[in-house]
Amino acid sequence: MQKNGNAINDFVANEAIDFILMRKENGNIAILNGTGEAEVIVENNRVGYRSITANPFGLEDTTSLLDKQAAFEHCYESNYPDALFQCKQLFESERTVKERVSDGFISYLAQFGFTVFSSFKQMCKLVP
Known about the structure:
With 128 residues, the chain is of the alpha+beta class.
């Protein structure tokens, strides 16, 4: 994952981070975690999933692009139901498109039991 730079690599290596999402140059969405990368393929209001160096969502790779219902069914039994279309919708939301931040926009999901503040250095474990 060296191609992503030290800040991204340090961020995904933190135990508080489950994964991060970033727009790729080809319009697909990279999913990065501490073990590697996969991608959500986005084309014509359909999505697919492909492991590259890891499988952050724990899904089988798709052999074709899926509509919303098929994508939901593909993810339903996983830890991330509806993940594929949620990723697509996040990067197509009015705010990310209107403000043209989708090319530099990064989203993340914290591990269960953690919260992540706006600064990389302000990560802390939630206390029950």
